[in-house]
Structure formats: structure tokens, C-alpha cells
Design goal:
The longest helix is centred in the C-terminal third of the chain and has 18 residues, at 254-271. The chain has helices at 20-28, 43-55, 66-81, 93-96, 101-104, 122-126, 151-163, 175-182, 186-190, 216-228, 237-249, 254-271, 294-308, 340-354, and strands at residues 8-9, 59-63, 85-88, 109-112, 134-138, 167-172, 195-199, 210-214, 275-277, 285-290, 310-311, 316-318, 325-330. The chain has 2 domains: 3-14 and 253-354, Aspartate Aminotransferase, domain 1 (Alpha-Beta Complex), CATH 3.90.1150; 36-249, 3-Layer(aba) Sandwich (Aspartate Aminotransferase, domain 2). It is 43% helix and 16% strand. α8 crosses α12 (254-271), α12 crosses α14 and α13 (294-308) packs across α14 (340-354). It starts with 7 loop residues before the first strand and ends with a helix. It is of the alpha/beta class. The strands form 3 sheets. Strands 2-8-7-6-5-3-4 form a 7-stranded mixed sheet, sandwiched between helices. A 4-stranded antiparallel sheet has the order 9-10-13-12, with helices on one face. A two-stranded parallel sheet has the order 1-11.
Length: 355
């Protein structure tokens, strides 16, 4: 589909709000002639210090990608414990989306834990017999609709992993979106874990990048690995500056984004033509399941964009039933412009294109 024809979008990472002129204009509004590119007062150092404080960690380190940040964290935990295995949900981002970099680059082994369509539970972790270097929790679990464990379940699982000598690592790519569900400070959530990765371009809508937060010793080791893997990029200040803007402007709005997601999901489920899940959403992210196949839905969206300039989703997800599929809604700033009943109407328009 022609991206230039999209004028409005429910998709969090739609291209038109992220065009260079708009992004650079926002950056220029936040800096002055004296803002340094690097050093202790540069945007990268400021971002690292700010996230370390927000998460209650001794230190934090900027990485160009979350893929690199998480693999480095796992590698350090593995070397400290002289163990090669780690465990996580079957739809862990590191397994599904990163071409097995943890194995190819770092020689680590992965144990998928539990059912791929439900949350990981303690009994699933207990069934892993091999000594583990780390257990990874993705909060929220994106590929099953942004689901989260209860706070008590999460605490129980982390404590049990530590009792077995494993490190607890948080894939917090969307920790910002998860925090309103727990209604606890970010530092209390992060404090359960030995290391935490957060994205600065997903919910915060920065240009790109990630931050790994942990104790001072882990961060010192991570800096060595970042250099070895080519991640110590000079002049990373535009990436950090975009993240700082997100922390200022978007982080305080996460509860409102979640509330709007709940309203949209409620309207979809009350209508009945499609199903929103989880019900209600635990985060601003949830899935909508529709009674049409993936290819048909993608053709319907292309037609809808051509007719109206409105994009409903980024991509569709196939299902075992070829006559069904799903797509993700992740409510951010531009999704707030869509009333719940308008989203219901758009779903009907998509389905009408197929029938």
C-alpha cells in the first residue's frame, strides 16, 4: 500500500507522524545552542541517568537496538553462572523475531515455557529440569494481546527462579504501557529483576534505540559487550533526544491510552462483529479477532486506505482456522483521535469489503 495515501492511522508505528521534518522539528524545540552532543550533559548521558533513576537501578546503558541490549544482558547472566540455558514464554520476542541471535551469536539455549497462547505460570517453570542462567518475562506479552501476569504471580515466579540460581530479566520493551495495570511505581516493578531492557521507540515513539538497566557491575560489563558488537555508536544524541521527548510527553499519558483501549475494546465486543482480547485490555495494546482470512483482510484494508486514507492496523496475523485472523491495536497519541464507535464502524467497513 502507498504510505503517502495514509492520512490517519490506529497503528502505533504509522509512518506519517514520524516523517523527518516533524521529528526534527520536535527535537529542535527541546534544545538550544548550548546543548552538547556528548559528555555528561549530552542527551545520551541524560537519558541513561533518567531511566536508571526511574527504574531504581544503579546504572543504565543506551543501545542502538533492543535485540543487542537483551542478548548482552543474557550473555552476562550466563557467563556469571556458567550456564547456557534460559527460559521464557514460547512467543518471546528473542525467539520469534530475532533470528535466534541468542544462539548464533552467544551460544545460548532456549527453553520455551508453557502454552504459546496463554501466560507463563509457575508450574510451567517448574517443569524445566535444566539449570537456567536466566528466566525472561516479557511485560506485557505482546504476541498474545498484551497480556500480563498478576502481581502476585509475577512475584512468585521471580522468587522461584532466583531460588534455582537463575537471574530474572525483564523484557520491558513495553514496560511503560504495563505500569498502569500494576499501578505501582516503575522502580517497584523493575526492582523485581536483575536486569531490565526498555525500548525508547515503541510506546515512547523515539527514533530508535533501547536502554539496559541493572547494577553497576552488570552495566560495566554490558558496555564492553556493546563495543564488541558494534553498538557504541558515536553521535547517538538524536536517538536519545527523541526518547527524552517521549518520556516528557507520552509517558504521563499511558493511563489515558490504556483507558481509551478499554473503551474501544468494550465497543467492539458489544457490537459483536469482531472480538477484542483480552477483555478488558490490560494495557493500551490488545488484539481484534475477525471472521475473515488474513489475505482477504489485507486486501480489504488496502481498499479502505484507497477510499478513505484511514489505516486500521499495521499487519494481520494468521490463525489455525484459515477463515479467521487477528490484528493488533496499540493505542498511542494518534489513536486517541478515533472514537470507540468509529473503530467499530471501520471494522464493519473492513468486513463489508470481504463479503
Amino acid at each position: 500500500m502507498a504510505q503517502t495515501s495514509i492520512r490517519r492511522s490506529l497503528f502505533l508505528h504509522a509512518s506519517f507522524p514520524r516523517r523527518p521534518h516533524a521529528v526534527l522539528s520536535a527535537m529542535l524545540a527541546r534544545v538550544d545552542d548550548d546543548t552538547p552532543a556528548g559528555g555528561e550533559d549530552g542527551p545520551v548521558a541524560v537519558l541513561e541517568a533518567r531511566i536508571a533513576e526511574l527504574l531504581g537501578m544503579q546504572g543504565a546503558l543506551f543501545f542502538p537496538t533492543g535485540t543487542m541490549a537483551q542478548q548482552v544482558g543474557l550473555r552476562i547472566h550466563a557467563e556469571r553462572r556458567n550456564r547456557l540455558a534460559w527460559a521464557g514464554h514460547p512467543q518471546s520476542h528473542m525467539e520469534v523475531w530475532e533470528k535466534h541471535g541468542y544462539q548464533v551469536v552467544h551460544g545460548l539455549r532456549y527453553h520455551p515455557v508453557g502454552d504459546r497462547n496463554t501466560m507463563m505460570v509457575q508450574a510451567d517453570l517448574d517443569a524445566v529440569a535444566e539449570p537456567l542462567a536466566a528466566v525472561v518475562w516479557e511485560l506485557p506479552q505482546r504476541d498474545i494481546g498484551g497480556q500480563l501476569p498478576t502481581w502476585d504471580d509475577l512475584c512468585e515466579q521471580v522468587a522461584a527462579a532466583r531460588a534455582r540460581g537463575a537471574a530474572a530479566h525483564l523484557d520491558g520493551a513495553r514496560l511503560w504501557e504495563a505500569q498502569p495495570f500494576y499501578d505501582r511505581p516503575h522502580a517497584e516493578i523493575a526492582g523485581l529483576f536483575d536486569s531490565v531492557y526498555v525500548s525508547v521507540y515503541k510506546g515512547l515513539q523515539g527514533v530508535r534505540g533501547a536502554v539496559l538497566a541493572a547494577d553497576a557491575g552488570t552495566i560495566a560489563q554490558a558496555a564492553v559487550w556493546r563495543t564488541r558488537l558494534g553498538g557504541s555508536i558515536p553521535d547517538a544524541w538524536p536517538l536519545a533526544l527523541g526518547a527524552l521527548i517521549g518520556l516528557d510527553d507520552l509517558l504521563p499519558r499511558m493511563p489515558a491510552f490504556r483507558d481509551h483501549a478499554v473503551a474501544i475494546a468494550a465497543a467492539v465486543n458489544a457490537d459483536g462483529a469482531a472480538r477484542a482480547w483480552p477483555d478488558p485490555p490490560q494495557t493500551p495494546l490488545f488484539h481484534i479477532h475477525v471472521p475473515v482470512g488474513k489475505a482477504a483482510l489485507e486486501r480489504a484494508q488496502a481498499a479502505l486506505i484507497a477510499q478513505t486514507g484511514v489505516q486500521v492496523f499495521g499487519y494481520a496475523r494468521s490463525a489455525p482456522d484459515p477463515g479467521r485472523c487477528s490484528f493488533e491495536i496499540s493505542v498511542g497519541e494518534h489513536a486517541m483521535d478515533f472514537a470507540a464507535d468509529e473503530v467499530v464502524d471501520l471494522i464493519h467497513r473492513l468486513l463489508d469489503q470481504v463479503r
